[in-house]
Specification:
Shape: globular
Number of strands: 17
Strand content: 25-35%
Oligomer: single chain
Structural class: alpha+beta
Radius of gyration: 21 Å
Largest sheet: 6 strands, mixed
Number of helices: 11
Length: 328
């Protein structure tokens, strides 16, 4: 996974968009065991990687920190950038006097993206004035990145369309074409395809998953999948994390409270940077409560979609032979 990566529009590389989360094919990987010593930075990690596994000469190396001396972790830390791929370091765990790090070479083009639309009501306003503009922005990005285009006929039918390398146009009803691409081995269909997933929540502006306002309708027809985080689900998480924290989540609560006060020095609770202990307990929390957390979400689109179907589609895409796809 990559976080806040700039992705080029399909057929128009002059315009890029930072996407919150993207899933990428893994070309190579290596597990490192380093002596426990803080900080853990990109230079130190690269010095310990296998030069035969990763040809470092083709990469530029930003000065990134995977784990700071104060124990703040950078999630999906890019430690080297190349023309068509980049190296990402992930901190697996710290055990006694050892630090376990996973280094992967990711292909730059993702096979799926996730965007979260969190819109609150501005102070003094009954309804945030930017909600529809943010919805349109998200819809534009969702429609611009993938090789599968969506269009409506005069009758209102949603169709999918792909331009093939021989300049022919391949089109089918949208849901049918999406299913075909996800299950396909055809490099021409897969090469620039990106499954788009949007996640929205209410916060007073999005109404409910049953009562779609204009913003939700715009997003639902733009993303391949649109998930709705219910108020009940969000409230349950806030209660367990902040209001009545379980003993397990105390490190996460502490990191949150340190980060969101007027006296904060540095944020330790974001999708990019998070306190290491908070990261570990949250991973355990989501893993141990996965079945319950799944019920926090409603599927707005596609019709009759389920979490298991989404999981199956992502798994199918992950298992493709992407090295072959991108070399043809």
């Amino acid at each position: 996974m990559a976080i806040e990566l700039a992705l080029a529009e399909y057929g128009n590389p002059d315009i890029t968009h930072n996407v919150e989360y993207s899933l990428h094919p893994i070309l190579r990987q290596q597990r490192l065991v380093l002596p426990y010593k803080l900080p853990v930075n990109a230079t130190r990690i690269l010095e310990n990687t296998d030069q035969k596994t990763f040809s470092l000469a083709v990469f530029t190396k930003p000065n990134r920190m995977l784990l700071t001396s104060k124990g703040v972790l950078r999630n999906s830390c890019v430690i080297a950038n190349g023309g068509s791929s980049h190296l990402v370091a992930t901190l697996d765990s710290i055990q006694d006097d050892k630090v376990m790090v996973e280094v992967v070479e990711q292909y730059c083009k993702p096979y799926a993206i996730f965007e979260c639309k969190r819109v609150g009501v501005e102070e003094g306003m009954k309804k945030g004035p930017q909600t529809i503009e943010k919805a349109k922005q998200g819809a534009y990005v969702a429609k611009s990145l993938s090789s599968m285009h969506k269009l409506r006929t005069a009758s209102g039918e949603l169709r999918g369309l792909v331009y093939k390398p021989d300049q022919t146009i391949y089109s089918k009803p949208y849901a049918e074409l999406l299913a075909e691409i996800v299950s396909s081995k055809d490099a021409d269909l897969l090469r620039d395809f990106i499954l788009t997933v949007g996640v929205v929540s209410n916060h007073g502006n999005w109404f409910t998953s049953e009562n779609h306002n204009k913003e939700l309708k715009v997003l639902a027809q733009s993303y391949d999948w649109l998930l709705f985080l219910t108020d009940a689900g969000l409230s349950e998480f806030i209660t367990e994390l902040l209001l009545k924290p379980t003993r397990l989540l105390e490190p996460a609560r502490d990191a949150f409270l340190v980060s969101y006060t007027k006296h904060k020095t540095k944020n330790q609770f974001t999708k990019v940077q998070i306190d290491y202990r908070a990261d570990q307990v949250l991973k355990n929390y989501f893993r141990d409560n996965a079945e319950r957390i799944e019920k926090w979400f409603n599927i707005i689109g596609p019709p009759r979609g389920t979490m298991k179907t989404l999981e199956a589609e992502l798994s199918q895409l992950r298992r493709k032979n992407w090295t072959t796809v991108h070399s043809l």
